[in-house]
Amino acid sequence: HARGDVGETFYNDAVLLVAVGEVLENSELLRMNIKKAAACACKRVPDESEVVFADSPYAEDAVYAFVIACYRFDFLTAKKLQKRLRLNAPKHATAVRIAEAQNFARFLGDMPANMMTPTHFTEYAKEFLRDESVEIEVFDREYMKSKEMNLVLSVAQGSAP
Questions:
Q1: What is the DSSP letter of 91?
Q2: What is the mean pLDDT of residues 81-105?
Q3: Which stretches make up the Cytosol aminopeptidase domain (predicted)?
Q4: Residue 14 and residue 46 share a domain
Q5: How far apart are CA 59 and CA 76, in angstroms?
Q6: I want to staple 38 with a disulfide (CB 3.0 to 4.6 A). Which of 11, 53, 66, 142 is the partner?
Q7: Is the pTM of this model over 0.70?
Q8: Predicted confidence (pLDDT) per residue in 5-20, tens digit
Q9: Which long-range contacts (CB under 8 A, 24 or more apart) does 11-16 make?
């Protein structure tokens, strides 16, 4: 008995439909409901699925929310919680990249301090940005001391083994 409530899902082994509720077109509430619905979709979509979003004025919001909702910190667990999905959203590559960057920041923040030393942080950042046209400059301890980067040094001292 479908009611069309936000996040209500309907799945038939090939297509997943997610309700966004009854709201006015072009409203901020509609955008919020679409983001909530996309998060519900991530929970419901089977592992190793290809995910395609219908083209709409709100597809970018849905893609972004979907990628954010699919994040799971499973780095320290034997059983991996992160779903392996193929996201087919070429029109919304920017939204995907922004959400992936936010999830990467979440990963860095979720890591225990003793495992996120300055060296590890640098390695993770280089790996994440390997395909980007970004130049990374890493400073050693002596350089940071000479520039009085004391806050960074004290945090590094607390996380270094």
A1: G
A2: 87
A3: 103-160
A4: yes
A5: 33
A6: 66
A7: yes
A8: 888 887 887 788 888 8
A9: 11/44, 16/41, 16/44, 16/45
